[in-house]
C-alpha cells in the first residue's frame, strides 16, 4: 500500500506525531546530550558545528518538554571531565550558554520557564557564569518548566561534597551518625529540592552514565537511542516518553 502511494506521489506519506498519553508524563527528564562531534564528522564538518547544532536541539527539546507538561528538564551540557578536551573546544562550549540565552531568554520568559544551573561555578569563565546567573535571576519567579543546565557538573564530586558536609555535621555534634538517612545525602546534592529524574535519555548509542546523577538515577527508567543529539527531534523525544509510559516502575517491589 505504502509502496503504491509512494509510486503515485513520489515520497512516503507523512505519519502524524504520536503524542504521549497526557496522564502519565514524567515529572523530571534528564538527558545526556551526546554525539555532537560524531554528527559533525559524519557530515564533514568541524566538531564545533556539531555543538552549535546541539544548541538548536536544546531549544527544540525544551519546547517539546514544555508542551508535554514536563516539570523538570535537566540537560548535561558540560561535565567536570570535559575540561580535558582541546582548549578551543572548551572555549567554544563555554560560549554556548551565553549565545543560547541571548537568543532564547525572552521566549523562555514568555513561556514561564525557570532556568537553573547545577554544577560548580568556580571554574566557569565569567562570561558564561554571568549569562547563566542573569537568566536564573530573571526567571527565578517563573512557575513553568524548570530548565536545569548541568554545567561543570560531576556526580562523584557532588557526592564527595555531600559526604564531607555530613562528616562536618557529625564532627560538630549537629548530626548523630545513627540518624543519617537518604534525606541527608539528597538534601546536600546539587539537585536538592528537585525530584529524582523519572526518565533518563542518552543519545548517540553510548550505554553509560558518564558521572551523571549517579545517586539521583537509582530508580529512573533509562532510554537509549543511536540518534546523535543534533538530530534528536520531538518525535524521538515523544517516543522516549511513550516507552516510559509502557514501563512498570516497581522500585524493588513486585
Ligand atoms: C557530548 O557529545 C556533548 C557535550 C560535551 C556538549 C553538549 C553540549 C550541547 C549539546 C550544547 C549545549 C548548549 C547549551 C545551550 C548549554 P560530544 O560532542 O562529545 O560528541 P561525540 O562523542 O560524538 O564526540
From TrEMBL:
GO terms for cellular component: cytosol. Keywords: Magnesium, Metal-binding, Transferase. It comes from the Bacteria. Its EC number is 2.5.1.-. GO terms for molecular function: ditrans,polycis-undecaprenyl-diphosphate synthase [(2E,6E)-farnesyl-diphosphate specific] activity; magnesium ion binding; manganese ion binding. The keyword Magnesium applies. GO terms for biological process: polyprenol biosynthetic process. Binds 2 magnesium ions per subunit. InterPro entries: UPP_synth-like, UPP_synth-like_CS, UPP_synth-like_sf. Substrate binds at residues 35-39, 47, 51, 79-81, 83, 85, 202, 208-210. SUPFAM superfamilies: Undecaprenyl diphosphate synthase. Its cofactor is Mg(2+). The active site is at 34, 82 (proton acceptor). Mg(2+) binds at residues 34, 221. It is an enzyme of class 2 (transferase). Catalyzes the condensation of isopentenyl diphosphate (IPP) with allylic pyrophosphates generating different type of terpenoids. NCBIfam families: PRK14830.1, uppS. PANTHER family: DEHYDRODOLICHYL DIPHOSPHATE SYNTHASE 2, DEHYDRODOLICHYL DIPHOSPHATE SYNTHASE FAMILY MEMBER. Homodimer. Belongs to the UPP synthase family. This is Isoprenyl transferase. It comes from Paenibacillus nasutitermitis. The gene is uppS.
Amino acid at each position: 500500500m505504502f509502496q503504491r502511494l509512494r509510486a503515485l506521489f513520489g515520497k512516503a506519506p507523512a505519519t502524524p506525531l504520536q503524542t504521549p498519553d497526557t496522564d502519565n508524563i514524567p515529572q523530571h527528564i534528564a538527558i545526556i546530550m551526546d554525539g555532537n562531534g560524531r554528527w559533525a564528522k559524519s557530515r564533514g564538518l568541524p566538531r564545533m558545528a556539531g555543538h552549535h547544532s546541539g544548541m538548536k536541539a536544546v531549544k527544540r527539546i525544551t519546547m517539546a518538554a514544555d508542551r508535554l507538561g514536563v516539570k523538570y528538564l535537566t540537560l548535561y551540557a558540560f561535565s567536570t571531565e570535559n575540561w580535558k578536551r582541546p582548549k578551543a573546544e572548551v572555549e567554544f562550549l563555554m560560549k554556548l550558554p551565553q549565545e543560547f540565552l541571548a537568543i532564547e531568554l525572552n521566549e523562555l520568559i514568555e513561556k514561564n520557564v525557570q532556568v537553573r544551573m547545577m554544577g560548580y561555578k568556580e571554574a566557569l569563565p565569567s562570561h558564561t557564569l554571568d549569562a547563566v546567573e542573569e537568566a536564573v535571576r530573571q526567571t527565578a519567579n517563573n512557575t513553568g518548566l524548570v530548565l536545569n543546565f548541568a554545567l561543570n557538573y560531576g556526580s562523584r564530586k557532588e557526592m564527595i561534597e555531600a559526604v564531607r558536609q555530613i562528616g562536618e555535621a557529625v564532627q560538630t555534634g549537629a548530626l548523630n551518625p545513627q540518624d543519617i538517612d537518604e534525606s541527608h545525602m539528597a538534601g546536600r546534592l546539587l539537585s536538592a529540592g528537585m525530584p529524582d529524574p523519572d526518565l533518563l535519555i542518552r543519545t548517540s548509542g553510548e550505554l553509560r552514565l558518564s558521572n551523571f546523577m549517579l545517586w539521583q538515577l537509582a530508580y529512573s527508567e533509562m532510554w537509549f537511542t543511536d540518534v546523535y543529539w543534533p538530530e534528536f527531534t520531538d518525535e524521538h523525544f515523544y517516543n522516549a516518553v511513550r516507552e516510559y509510559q509502557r514501563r512498570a516502575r516497581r522500585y524493588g517491589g513486585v
